[in-house]
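User: Quick sanity check before I run a bigger batch. Here is a single chain. Can you write out its predicted 3D structure?
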Amino acid sequence: MLARLVGIVLGLILATSGYVVAGWGSLGTWAAHLDLGPFEPHRSNVGMAAAIVGGVLIAAALLPRRRPKRRKRAPMAFGLELEPAAAPVAAPSVATPVRAAADPVQAAPAAPQPPQAPPPKPKTFSELRAHLVSLSRDEAWAEAARTLSAMRTLARSDEELAIVHRDLGDFARAQGQMDDAAEAYDHAVYYARQVRQARPTDDSAELLAGALSGVGDVAEAEGRLDAALSAFEEALALRRSRGGREAGDPTAQRALSVNLERLADLREDRGHRMRALDLYRESYDIAGRLAAADPARFGPDLAATRARLSELEARIST
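Assistant: Done. Predicted structure follows.
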């Protein structure tokens, strides 16, 4: 805040000085006869430069300053341009031995061929999704991309379509393809709402909340802060609707913690620091419980949340 005030004051001084020195007008007589020394022949240019620099300082002080936000979820290196799933290879046919017509000697009977193994059973959507998660953990990106392409082909129900489009959004966002990510997340939200309407359960709430969080991430990255704030608030309301039943699910608790912090960052940018502080404290309590149960997995999250909470408390106390 102090830096913003200094920037505004300095900008006003430079802008008004340049306004008078350049001869565009007067603000009393305080700078009417200001001697510029060796720059006197260039009075109009000097005044114009000072006015421009002052205006830039004022604009920079008034514009919201964006700082990199902590992201707990590791980015996935996928893109939307996926390789098509490999077609199954047909088993080679076995030629039947032919007896030569001119051979007077009876040929020995051919050995019986072992029965061919049946072709592998195609994987279901759920199996492909589990395989995709495993491949992403192993950083087998090429195979994971083919798996996602197969998932997209198999998706039929609203729930499956919501899941696959949410994954497509994650992959596109990790590659910086924000337009594609936004489109995929919008599709995910549409299908997730259909699921939520037909089956208002905790699972459908988390599915819709996850899609909305993706919408918020893309909107925030593109500077559409109102849209990001709306998406994160709706996602948080859905996760709160579980009434604490996510306590036995570490993944759901972590998603709630991340949601709280994304919303807190936006609230702080709007100047709502006390509201942001409350959200970070709530996230810190959740992160502390997770880290106590699994330090290796959730310890880094707790450390990052503690650092941001301390930073925010320090800003409020000054």
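Residues 73 and 276 are 21 Å apart (CA to CA).

User: Great, the batch can go ahead then.
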